[in-house]
Each structure stands twice: as C-alpha cells, then as structure tokens.
Amino acid sequence: MKRPGLGLAFRLAVAIGLTALILWQADPREVWRAARGARLAPLLAAVALVLADRALMAWRWLVLLRPLSGAAHLSAWPIMRIFFVSTFVGTFLPGVGADAVRAWGLAREEVPPAAAVASVFMDRMLGVFSVLLMACAGLALASDLAGDPSILAALAFSGLVCVATAALVFSSRAAALGRAVLSRLPWARLAQAGHSLLSAVQSYAPASRNLLQVTAASVGVQVLRIVQAWLLGRALGMDAGPAVYFAFVPLVLLVILVPVSVSGLGTGQVAFVWLFGRVGVPAADAFTLSILFVGLGIVGNLPGALLYLKGGAASRRADAVSG
After folding, report:
1. Nearest CA to 54 among 22, 88, 78?
2. How far apart, in whole angstroms, are the C-alpha atoms of residue 90 and residue 154?
C-alpha cells in the first residue's frame, strides 16, 4: 500500500535535486554575477505585468462563476478577495493547494461545494488549454523541437487532460460513463459528491460564451507571462529577441505542468536552460532567468498577503453569524 506523503516526498526530491544539479552545472558564481547585474527598470516593468495578469486571472474566475446558480448571490469583491488570498496561501502549499483554498473560500460564502470545486476545476483546465495552444504556436516558431520526446510527452499529457475535460462537459455519453463509474464506488458519500461535481461541471455546457471569454483571457495571461520573461531577460542583458520567448516560454510552461515535481521547480529550470541554450544563451543566464521567473510569480502573490492578514479567505457572512 502506498504510504501517505510518499508522492509528495518524491516530487520534492525531484524539485530540489534538479534545481541543485542545474545550478551546479551553470556555476553558482556565474549565476550570482548575472543576478547582481540585473537592471532595475525592466524588473519593475515585469512586476507591473505580473500584477496585471493576476487581475486578469481573478476576472476569468469571476466569469466562470456566473453560470453556476449556487454562486449567483456573490458580488465581485468576495470573489476577488478569495482569489488573491488563495494565490498567497498557495505559495506555501504543494500542488493544487491554492485551488483547495479557493474552493474552501467559496464554501464559506455559502456556495455549494460541488459548484465551488467545479469553478476551480474549469479555471484550471482552461488555463492548461491556453498553455497547450500557446505551446503549439511556439512549436511553429521552433519546429525542430516538435519531435523531442519530453515536449511530446508534455503535449500528450496536457492534450489528454483537455480532451477528457471537454468530454465530461459536452458529451452525454462521457457523463453517463462517469456516473456509471461513480456508482460503483464502495463509498456512498464519495460517490454522491462525485455525482454532484459532475452535474456542476456539465452546467458549463450551455455557457459557451463564458468559456470563450475565459479561454481568451487565459491566452492573454500566457502572453503577459511571455512578455514578463522577455523583460526579465532584458534585465539580465540577454540578446534573445521576443520571438525566442514566444517560442520557448510556452514550452517551459508546458513542461512545468507535468506533475513530477513541486510547482514545476527543477523541471522549469531544466527547460529554461535547455531551450535557451539552443540559441546561445549561457547556462548561468538561463538559470537566473528561470529563478527570476519563479520569484516574479511569488511577487504577484503578495497582494493576497494583505488580504490574508485582514481576515484570510473567511466569509464575512459566516463571521457575522458567528459574531
């Protein structure tokens, strides 16, 4: 029987091991030299863009909640508060920790648990779909990578996830198969929760306009992330042009999605160094870029810290009742 936490321990070991290995190969002294020489103006511009992409991510979740009847009573503010708090708390949690905090925050706002989880699930899946779209566009700019096994594996994993999600939303046969599988579960409460979640996910089938809006916003988020990476590269004095970033950054994000490490640490560093090395970027610069990219994401999560200190993701309605 699998021991609890063993999978997390393995992923953490992969993250630490790969990051340490790439740092050693890049030479820590050269990495420090690159980081110390970073220019401030492009860094500040990247910070401004990461705040913009967080706002766009919050808006797309707001759009996803609109088709759910159980969330119709919510105004924009509690949704934004829950989103930004979850991004901050999720910084310290493995895997889908931020998603769990979002679902819990919605439940505290009297949103049915199935609807809360469905909104977070669809937000995550449409984010994966946008990365997949941008990665395919990136391969058009770097066609020599189309046959690489690691890229193909990441494409296949993401594609299967997106196809399975689309089938559950739009296919009555897939939904019937899912219900049949759930009905065979030996745990009645788990089966009931699964049925409720499946019904909530299927409520998005007639909400094609919302799904298109969120998909467009998700692509916009990916474009902002590419520009952020380009600005970070400019801060480091890298000569690679914007086309290089549009080709490589979506592929990096695609590799990060493969769940073999914690939050893409290690695998992301490998992908940055490997891909940017193909256009002559020194390993130290590419590794520093990868660390700055991770750090930028953490900076984007900091606004949630202020909201967390003012009350976390707890519901004002629940607090009023308890008071």
Report:
1. 88
2. 23
